[in-house]
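Hi L.,

As promised, Parvulin-like PPIase:
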Amino acid sequence: MPTLSPLWRNGALALGLILPGLVPGAALAQQPAPAATPAPSPDTVVAKVNGATITAGDLAVAADDPALSLPGVDDAQKKNLLVDYMVDLKIGAQAAEKAKIGDNPDFVRKLAYFRDKLLLDEYLEREAKKAVTPQAERALYDETVKAMKPEEEVHARHILVDNEAEAKKIAARLKGGEDFAKVAAETSKDPGSKAEGGDLGWFTKERMVAPFADAAFKLEAGKISDPVKTQFGWHVIKVEEKRTKPVPSFDEMKEQVEAYLTRKTQQDIITKLRESAKIEKTAAAPKADEKK
């Protein structure tokens, strides 16, 4: 049998990865993962506009701008779009410099304002990162959980109709043994729960209007209520289960805990800075009760 050249064999193997039938076992061959491309240095120049450079660091700043969010766009395309945007930005800025926009007093004030704002944002973000530690998050969670009072929850279904006579007929059918979900799908006027067989899931008492909540929390599990009137119409309720509301886990609360600690830390920083600063308002400052 003639020997296949290495080039031909490599070509056949490559084809086999696309059409496995050409090379037995090719589909099962584990291919090495492509090497990860190292991130460029922030000083790496990605484009030049009339001699002015745009760096990878500049692109990173632009990528963090919420106004330039590009959901659904892959990374490679996003980078290309950001480069084009930064080119346009640089061209426009150069034109504005030639037009001496930077000498305009209003522009100078805006520049000073946004510089102060960026400085404050960066400072607060840096200080918050120092304060929001895993230990602080856990301590706040434990403190919050300890202060939580046990709450009763009910898992219930309901059927909503327009009048009491219709509600009484439905209650009789259900107490006679008909399937609640089936009857709800046929008769309920509540679009939110009808397709789910009237299922409202778990809820605490304060989440529902008073007449409905009072009736649901008085019912024993498995029981059907008499018609209950609310501003929405007439309800027939079935309580499936009752329980004490479970305490949310640390993982479930982590994002809320982190957000609260971040806001509190930043508010505390501003409060302390105000207390130590010498603040003087002149007669030209608007008064709190001043009317336009």
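The beta strands are 45-49, 52-55, 152-161, 199-204, 228-230, 233-244.

Thanks again for sending the construct details.

K.
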